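Long-time lurker. I teach an intro course on protein structure, and each term I like to show students one example going from raw sequence to a predicted 3D structure in token notation. This year I'd like something fresh instead of my usual example. Would anyone be willing to generate the tokens for the chain below so I can use it in lecture? Attribution to the forum is fine with me.
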Amino acid sequence: MNQTTPPPHSSARTTAPVLSVVVPAYNEAGALASTLDMIARHLAALVPHYEIVVVDDGSRDATAQIAADCAERLPVTLVRFSRNFGKEAAISAGLQHARGDVVVCMDADGQHSADLLGTMLAHWREGWDMVYAVRADRAEQGLFNRLGSKLFYRMMNASGRLDIPPNAGDFRLMDRRVVDALLALPERQRFMKGMYAWVGFRSIGIPYTPLPRTAGMTTFNRLNLMRLAWTGLTSFSVLPLRMASLIGLLLSTVAFAYGLYEVVEKLLFGVDVPGWPTVVVSIMFFSGVQLLFIGILGEYLARVYDEVKGRPPYIVAEVVRGSGQQD
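-- Reply from a regular --
Happy to contribute to a lecture. Here you go:
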């Protein structure tokens, strides 16, 4: 997916695109208005036509109302979910409603600097289809997040089928072709980082340092991070299944070797085989391993179950188009 050499000059784009910015928001009433003003100010200086698509992911505060108020003075489209469906669904809904030639995903908390929009757009004009921001440093994060992030990306990229850039998030610019390719993917359990990598296209990363949150605290805790990581692994990798098979083979080999050793010892030396505690512990251990692997199989089966039901990944309760927006 990643390229370091620029595309051919013939692929450069010189037209002024219509630019859409997708902003998923969940309980961001304190930061949303200032974030939208910042984005709109930068977009107005970059392109003649733009829109901002705010997806309210079932917020319990005044996020939806603030977005609707901003829509009275800015080209903002509010897409309000019927309940909380998660950030991945919110991004998908934003891409579905975005109508620009170029689409950018940004967070509602103000941590994604709008100053990078000009750099991203310049790379797009050079011919890049996707420009993603890569965190320059994770030093401010805890040890758990840093180690967990490294382990996750190593496991995701271990199969060699995908190349997901480490420390690259949802802050990225996408050409309309990329957006259409993402929208064509039918899965309902959507892991956007994996989907960005799967569709391919010419991509380049640029470093960035997240800004301090404008207001409030993040609602994305460790449990949510682990749940998202597990969704990614089971959606785009069969590594857990292969690890289960490998560990099962290894344990079976060890058990066979130990059994052969006991038989030989009995036949050659006539030593009684005591070891009732060993037998009990071994049974409990192997039973636990079997249940663990059955659980892994169950996770993949649950993914299949969710997909075959055919339920939509989100339900839109309301769409409000603001200043300059047309249906």
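Some talking points for your students: The longest helix spans residues 276-309. The CA atoms of residues 110 and 321 lie 22 Å apart.
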